[in-house]
Amino acid sequence: MKKCKGTGVAKGYGCNTPLPFTKRNGLKSYKSKYGLGIDCKCYQKWLVSTNEGKEKMQAAALKATKPRREFEEFEKEEKERKSLNTLLTNTKNACHTYIKARDKGKPCISCGVPYRSDFQAGHCFKSELFSTIRFHENNIHGQCIGCNIHKDGNEAAYISRLPERIGKEKVVELLKLSKLDKKIDHKWDREQLIEVRKYYQKKLKELKNGESI
Predict the structure, then answer these.
(1) What pLDDT sits at residue 22?
(2) What is the pTM of this model?
């Protein structure tokens, strides 16, 4: 009979207990690890008393809990993503509500068609392509559905009429910001979105109260 003895990382922890064996493919197979019998108390002692044993238990625990931890991390990330998307939508709504109120009565920024109540908040530089200026008030103006949707923003006419609306200096500034945007990998975070939302909520309140903007 082969006896339980400590070898390698388990050297010195063997208890010399005879190890039972079974035959597999005609060969003896002992129920042991690192020279220690798995059913012997010395194996448990090795697990709790040595750094190697503790590392093995920790690795086993991490492996056993990996699916649960991965699921919890996924749930957390998904919750944060949904929360950020909701905040992004709320910020967009606050911004667009102000823009439509500010430009009420003004003709379409692109084609000049007279104001209608179904005018939308249209971007000169598309929000999905220019992240840093997606909420910039000089980049958003009242626009008819025909230009904003059916003509995909009608950008050429939009830019040509923009100086009449905000002045050449602000147009030049906006063009500079649009070029700078392409050099920045910008993603809106919670603090920024909350700040922008509050800004437009305040602007809308001032507009409704007839205060100067």
Answers:
(1) 67
(2) 0.63
Asked whether residue 59 is assigned to any structural domain, the reply reads no
SS3 content of the chain, % helix, strand, coil (to 5): 55, 10, 30
Rounded to whole angstroms, the Cα distance separating 202 from 89 reads 17
| Overall average pLDDT of the 36-42 stretch | 84
| 140 and 191 fall within a common domain | yes
Together in a domain, 26 and 77: no
Tell me which residue range forms the domain holding 41.
Answer: 2-49
How far apart CA 88 and CA 191 sit, in angstroms, is 11
Residues 182-190 have a mean pLDDT of 90
Query: Is there a contact between 198 and 163 (Cβ–Cβ < 8 Å)?
Result: no
Max CA distance (Å), the chain: 100
CB atoms within 10 A of CB 6: 18
Q: Which residues pair with 2 in a beta bridge?
A: 19
| pLDDT at position 212 over 60 | no
Say how far apart CA 155 and CA 146 lie, in whole Å.
Answer: 12
Give, in degrees to the nearest 5, the angle at Cα 157 between 153 and 162.
95
